[in-house]
Amino acid sequence: MSINMEEPMRFTVGCRLRYQVKAPIAFVFNVAVADSACQEITEEKLQTDPDLAVEQVKLVAGSRHMRLHAPVGEFTLHYRASGTRAPVQVSTAGLAEVSPAKLPLDIVHYVYPSRYCPSDRLLNFAAREFAAVQPGYVRVQAICDWIHANVEYAFGASDAHTAANDTLLGRRGVCRDFAHLGIALCRALNIPARFVTGYAQGLQPPDFHACFEAYLGQRWFLFDPTKLIPLDSIVRIGTGRDAADASFATIFGSAQMTEMNVFYHETVQETESDGHTALSTC
Fold first, then answer.
1. Domain ranges across the chain
2. Cis ω on the peptide bond leading into residue 50 (within 30° of 0)?
3. Using CA of residue 162, residue 168, residue 171, residue 173, what is the dihedral sign?
4. For the chain, which end, N or C, has fewer CB atoms within 10 Å of the first or last residue's CB respectively?
5. What's this model's pTM, rounded to 2 decimal places?
């Protein structure tokens, strides 16, 4: 396997989230840049208004979840981070699938169905469409190409209850729906796959972005069925089985979002994939 480290890219990312809180509640935020092997944070600032105590825990792939308790009234979270990222490029030649019998035990659960990725409901469809495709990277890319060609990207087409099987039937969704469908189809073919969120370049309007990773040749590789952004521009935030594990905000109570502002700046020229390299950022 040929592995190349890209030159470090400098980034500055962040967000401002504002809520009207109707009763004292707990928030769990997942907006901080992940502390992973391919990302280094050089400067970081988190502010809340009002000023609140924040607990933090590090989870899968360096994801950092923050919990705080907000009183009644207006609440605002400001987050900003600068750093460098150096994705790993690997030749797609020979990137093979790993059979469940040979998967590391800590990877096996990424083949199982999950809340938004009920892969057990997509077994027949996945077999019919992709069983004959060359196993490995080529097959996962074929799944992404099928989703891109057959599912319409449409704001407001889904909600917090939409799962991969709903997206397959409705053929409309946003980035998280595209990612969930890609994950579910991979798992239906016994390819471990997981959900990834991040800050990304070029989104209009600016927003958090969702894509997914597939486990091939003993490593996790990024895929994005939306094809909306340069894949190597993603600054990882969260990683999980699906959006239930990596939502940017989980609210335990009653609150209404009144503002969301996300920004991304990078000081390096974009690079384009030649189609023969896969990207890993974990």
1. 3-86+252-263, 91-235
2. yes
3. positive
4. N
5. 0.93
Helices (H), 59-131: 123-130
Give me the tens of pLDDT residue by residue for the chain, a chain 282 residues long: 555 555 688 999 999 999 999 999 999 999 999 998 889 999 999 999 999 999 999 999 999 999 999 999 999 999 999 999 998 999 999 899 999 999 999 999 999 999 999 999 999 999 999 999 999 999 999 999 999 999 999 999 999 999 999 999 999 999 999 999 999 999 999 999 999 999 999 898 899 999 999 999 999 999 999 999 998 899 999 999 999 999 999 999 999 999 999 999 987 545 455 567 898 877
Q: Which residues touch 147 (CB under 8 Å, ≥6 apart)?
A: 178, 181, 182, 185, 225
CA gap 92, 238 in Å, rounded: 25
91-235 topology per CATH: C8orf32 fold (3.10.620)
Buried b (16+ CB within 10 A) or exposed e, 209-239: bbbbbbbbbebbbbbbbbebbbbbbbbbbbb
CATH code: domain 3-86+252-263 is 2.60.40.2250
What value, to the nearest 5°, has the Cα angle with vertex 204 and ends 201 and 207?
70
Closest to 91 measured CA to CA, from 7, 218, 220, 3: 3
Cβ-based neighbours of 125, under 8 Å, separated by 6 or more: 168, 185, 188
